[in-house]
Design goal:
With 185 residues, the protein is an all-alpha fold. The chain has six helices and no strands. The protein has one domain. α1 runs antiparallel to α4. The radius of gyration is 16 Å and the shape is elongated.
């Protein structure tokens, strides 16, 4: 996997966390850097943890499905990308909670925005990709985007939120197609 592909995957996966961070930035009345730091740490940590869990689960499946692993990776990434695009169309205030910084809300949002990363982790295992660099890059990119998403939330508003999640979905679909083409050639 190239560095560019890894960065694109990280950006694609972090788009829903970014969109929710923007919403939280709008919802937090007295926005401070420590609010952005807390949300960034939660989202970045979960985005790094979920691919690791998926990768560990995928290692057990790799030998069983090695002949069709590229089709599975393509299917998972395309499904996740389409799901992100679909969800962006029906978003209305997602992540805009009365108390976006309390622990239960942060845990729920962190899990919800990182489920896609679990499936990508399975793809990494099936494609025999080492997991260390991806989890570090995915976690770091998600942290940075979530941090800045909170800080800029009140300026950008919900207009940008839907568009960025569509972009993330399209990136993941494109990577799925790239994986499929590489393995079919």
């Amino acid at each position: 996997m190239t560095h560019v592909t890894l960065l694109l995957i990280a950006f694609g996966l972090s788009m829903d966390a970014f969109a929710v961070s923007v919403s939280n930035g709008i919802a937090i009345q007295r926005r401070r850097a420590n609010h952005a730091l807390r949300i960034g740490l939660f989202f970045g940590s979960f985005q790094a943890l979920m691919p690791l869990i998926g990768w560990a689960a995928g290692l057990n499946l790799r030998d069983l499905i090695s002949g069709v692993d590229h089709w599975i990776a393509f299917g998972l990434l395309t499904f996740i990308g389409c799901k992100m695009i679909y969800e962006s169309k029906k978003m209305n205030g997602r992540g805009k909670e009365a108390k976006p910084l309390n622990l239960p809300t942060l845990l729920m949002l962190s899990v919800a925005t990182s489920i896609d990363a679990l499936a990508v982790g399975i793809s990494f295992a099936l494609l025999n990709i080492s997991i260390i660099a991806p989890i570090l890059v995915i976690g770091a990119v998600t942290f940075v985007l979530s941090f800045f998403g909170v800080l800029t939330g009140s300026k950008i508003g919900h207009f940008f939120e839907k568009k960025i999640e569509i972009l993330g979905g399209l990136i993941l679909i494109g990577i799925g197609i790239k994986i499929l083409i590489e393995h079919l050639n």
